Amino acid sequence: MLAVEGIHCRYGRINALRDASLTVGQGEFVCLIGANGAGKSTMLRAISGLMPVAEGAITFEGKRIDGRKASAIVGLGIAHCPEERKLWPQLTVAEHLDLGAFTRRDSADAARDRDRMLEIFPRIAERRDQLAGTLSGGEQQMVAIARALMSRPRLLMMDEPSLGLAPVIIDQLAPVISDIHASGTAILLVEQNAAMALAIADRAYVLETGTIVRAGTAGEIRRDPKVAEAYLGLAAPEDEETGAVP
Ligand code: ATP
């Protein structure tokens, strides 16, 4: 469905991505993990047309998308839920959902989807007329995800949805993301919270200083000794196998 092939992205003299490649299959759930500054956000920005690609190619459902405008890429079926959430503090929850449907012409269908979002996220349903700027961090994250889903993406990209959220809210968010995937939407999830991402994704990539250094099923990546030590805070993978580490 999505193929990123050997892309390079630069901020001036900083090489944020170097020969990075990844794929997401139809309906697949893929996560991208890595430390601060590894280039994870840059990867999502490159796919959604917010960051120029200096070399390499990105194709979505057989169409070359690098070099296209971000609005055109949304129209092709890719939604990007950015790290900073990018909500408008003076707009209500309901207005954000309407804005998420901006590429759609079927207003009756969009209204039905809006009702569905309010069912998926009952917490924001209670606050549909509340200004986004007055919502908690977890509620804002849910509005950002719901807004992205309003474009009916076939691929939803999420950048650190757990950032700044209390563990109890992250525990509520993970099943929502899994449900979105179960309904047929492919997901590319970027997370520093590797434990959460590897628990819910099918496949994973590890990015280090702009380069993909590991790829495999989420289980394989979780059991990788280096990943366990660097990203999961486990002393050794054997401990995980024997159950010695929670
Ligand atoms: P984080 O988890 O901290 O968001 P990340 O893995 O998403 O990190 P990126 O934000 O993609 O990493 O950044 C990759 C590299 O590019 C870093 O070295 C960063 O400092 C640099 N970078 C990112 N944005 C800019 C910018 N606007 N101008 C210059 N350098 C940038």
Written as H for each helix and E for each strand, in order along the chain, the element string is EEEHEEHEHHHHEHEHEEHHH
Total helices: the number is: 11
Instruction: Give the helix/strand class.
Output: alpha/beta
> In angstroms, what is the radius of gyration?
18 Å
Residue share in helix: 25-40%
Q: How would a crystallographer describe the biggest sheet? A: 6 strands, mixed
Query: In what order do the strands lie side by side in the largest sheet?
Result: 6-7-8-3-9-10
> How much of the polypeptide forms β-strand, as a percent range?
25-35%
Gap between N and C termini: 36 Å
User: Based on CA inertia axes, which overall geometry fits?
Assistant: globular
Report on this model:
This protein has 246 residues and is α/β, with parallel strands linked by helices. Helix content is 39%, strand content 25%. It has 11 helices and 10 strands. It has helices spanning 40-47, 70-76, 93-100, 107-120, 122-125, 137-149, 167-182, 194-200, 218-223, 225-231, 237-242; strands at residues 2-11, 14-24, 29-33, 55-60, 63-64, 78-81, 155-159, 186-191, 203-208, 211-217. The strands form 2 sheets. It has a 6-stranded mixed sheet with strand order 6-7-8-3-9-10, sandwiched between helices. α3 (93-100) runs parallel beside α6. The radius of gyration is 18 Å and the shape is globular. The structure holds adenosine-5'-triphosphate. Adenosine-5'-triphosphate (ATP) binds next to β2 and α1.
